[in-house]
Each structure stands twice: as C-alpha cells, then as structure tokens.
Give the backbone structure.
Amino acid sequence: MQSIETKTVIVDGSPINTLQAGDFATPPILFLHGKAFQAKTWQELGTLAAVINAGYSTLALDLPGFGNSPEAAIGPEKVIIEVMNAAGIERAIIVGPSMGGKIALELALNNPDKIAGLVLIGAVGVKENQARLSELPSGSLIIWGENDQISNPENGKILNREISDSRLVVFKDAGHPCYLEQPELLHKTLVDFVNTMVR
C-alpha cells in the first residue's frame, strides 16, 4: 500500500497541512472535511486506506482554521486550488461532507475545469446555490443520512433532481455524520463510484 505522507503546502504565506498518497497520475480523490473535523479524520476512519487499497491516489487537507492549518487570508476555494496546483493535480474527485460539501459544491460551480467528479455527503448550502445546481458535474454521487437533522434529506433529493445522471444513496438509520456512523458502507459506495469515473 502506498504510504500516507504529511506535507505542508504554503498558500499565500499560510501553511496548509495535507495528507497525501500516490503520484496523482490519474485524478486523485481529494477529501475536505466538516466543521468539527480535519484531514486526519479520514485517516482514522480508514477512508484514505480504502481508496489507496483500491489503487487510487489521495489528498486530504486541513481547511484554513482547522486541524494544523491556521486561518488564511484567502478563502477555502482558493486554498484548495493552490494546494492542487502545488501538488501537480490538474483535476480531482472532490469529496465534501457537511460544511466541506458546501465548499466542494461551490468549488465545482466556480472551477469546473478542476473537477473530475463530485461526492457530496450531507452537504449544507444547497438551497442558497439552488439556481446553479444544474451546472454541477453530471454523474455526481450524493450521500445522505436518512435521519439527518442538520441538512434535511430533502436537500439530497434536490441535488439528485438538479444534477444530471447523479446518484443518491441514503444511509439507513444514519444521521448527519452518516459516513462516520457507517464507514464500511461509505468506503464501498465511494470506491464503486470512483471506479466508474476513472476506469
């Protein structure tokens, strides 16, 4: 298995902490995180290992103000683009839960050339971007917890309706952090999706 390395990327003078594995020869899976979490959440959950074992490169980053990344003078979208550029990543499959889902959604809307695929998990910010949702990449994967009390499952249905050829997967008996509650299902669902996008 490819080893996971901790690398610091300087963006606009601010150190951004990342976890990286692979050579990024094919579009890697780039993980964002929710408000109470950080890059190492994905490592501790086994998600990074799952995608590496499936043969994919990956990068997870601490967004500015979270984990080991201090606040930055520029917004998270710009930070993500600069981290991708520094790592030599032209396009990535972006995975965003909750707050990270909102960032991923807006990143995809504003920088479609950087997106190879999109995975939104219990994303917030759906209704405020509803007028543009049809611009999101076709074939996106949408994951929601059946009992999500933070971002209503109706938001998942809205995304599924507005994004062409998208797939909605509802995790039964799961709340907002459905990926934390059912990681094995997440890993299977995610790897199956990436297999269809990359191979």
